[in-house]
Amino acid sequence: MHLKPFTYYRPKSLAHALELLQSSDPKKSMLMGGGTDILTKMKLRLARPVAVISLRGLTELRKIEQQGQEVFIGAACTLSEVKESNLVQHFFPIVAEAANRVGSPQLRNMGTIGGNVCLDTRCLYYNQLEWPGSLMPCFKRGGEKCHVVKKGARCYALYCADIPPTLLSLDAHLIIAKPSGEREIPIVDFYQDDGISCNCLKEEEVLVGIKVPIRQNTVSSYKRFSIRGAIDFPFVGVAISIERLSNGHYGNPRIAVTGLQSQPLRLRALELLLESSHAGEKEIEEVIEQGVRDIRIVRHYGISPSYRRNVLKVLIDDGLEECNIKGGRVK
Ligand SMILES: Cc1cc2nc3c(=O)[nH]c(=O)nc-3n(C[C@H](O)[C@H](O)[C@H](O)COP(=O)(O)OP(=O)(O)OC[C@H]3O[C@@H](n4cnc5c(N)ncnc54)[C@H](O)[C@@H]3O)c2cc1C
């Protein structure tokens, strides 16, 4: 399928990119990292930008470096660069693991970490060409209906990117630039449970990079499950990060998931339960059961909520096992 004509810009500096964003109609221009998602959407006519502003030429967004007790990962770094970075592998192996699970080598060579963090939500009814005359347009296509949650008052498209749950579990911060300056926000405040607009990035803003705090004594794991083993989005992904305390116990558990709602989210109820448990084999199972009981999960892509919940429990269990938590004490 052919793309509609558009003007392609490749600015050489962040200032120029922001200028281009400001001078063009924000509703008709789009930022592009590697284009692995937006070009597909443009071909499906789900996005019709007049101008596409590529971020690939911005050297300030293309570096990974240690800055004191943090590592800065530029938003325009490709997923292959992230997974091969010595700093990322050493301090945050789960980010390297999640980057390595995205799509295929070709997608990882083009796709960026910024595009992954800013990835749009997905839905069986939305991510395809129009179905002429068959279905009413859904909320995301400008209509007033959700075909997934029949009486739903909003869009329930799913957030399925691999890297954000790992960044949530590591308490990362995002650096966002706009013409009047920069702002830094905890990644946990970036997302919202809304299928149409799943993050709080404004039209005139660019994600510059991600700052991840270095914690020396952290054990972590990223597990995901998809229908196909390769080139497929996760239908559940679980990132776990836990500090190993000096007394041999574990503390500050962070458990974050993707693929369940319109945003990646921290499972705070489970984190609290884990903190007060003894983490013995049997107790862990009960804690997981209790901790995921109240998460709202809807049927998507033909996968029932109960199956998705069961997979979630298995992934959490496997992740805790990989972190060697079982039998230890979480405090
Ligand atoms: C067949 C296939 C399989 C895939 N499998 C997976 C998978 O398993 N897991 C997964 O997570 N993803 C998957 N993807 C989606 C995608 O390839 C990756 O998420 C990739 O990281 C997106 O990055 P990108 O740079 O190509 O994004 P782009 O397509 O360039 O951009 C995506 C969105 O982010 C915005 N954006 C990009 N960079 C910035 C920035 N710096 N500031 C502000 N906004 C920005 C764009 O405007 C756009 O809205 C798959 C895609 C395909 C086609």
Structure description:
- This protein has about 325 residues and is of the alpha+beta class.
- Among the domains are: about 60-120 and about 160-215, Uridine Diphospho-n-acetylenolpyruvylglucosamine Reductase, domain 3, CATH 3.30.465.10; about 220-320, CO dehydrogenase flavoprotein, C-terminal domain (Enolase-like, domain 1), CATH 3.30.390.
- Helices cover about 30% and strands about 20% of the residues.
- The chain is built from eleven helices and twelve strands.
- A hairpin with a 5-residue loop joins strand 10 and strand 11.
- Helix 9 packs antiparallel against helix 10 (about 280-290) and helix 10 (about 280-290) packs antiparallel against helix 11.
- The protein is globular and about 60 Å long.
- Bound molecules: flavin-adenine dinucleotide (FAD).
Give unreliable regions as ranges. none
Distance between the termini: 55 Å
Shape: globular
Assembly state here?
A: single chain
How would you summarize the topology of this molecule?
Layout: E1 7-9, H1 14-23, E2 29-32, H2 38-43, E3 51-54, E4 64-67, E5 70-74, H3 79-84, H4 86-91, H5 93-101, H6 105-110, H7 113-117, H8 163-169, E6 173-178, E7 181-186, E8 206-213, E9 218-225, E10 236-244, E11 250-258, E12 265-266, H9 268-275, H10 281-292, H11 305-322
Parallel strand pairs: 1-3, 2-3
Antiparallel strand pairs: 4-5, 5-8, 6-7, 6-8, 9-10, 10-11, 11-12
Helix pairs in contact: 9-10, 10-11
Bound molecules: flavin-adenine dinucleotide.
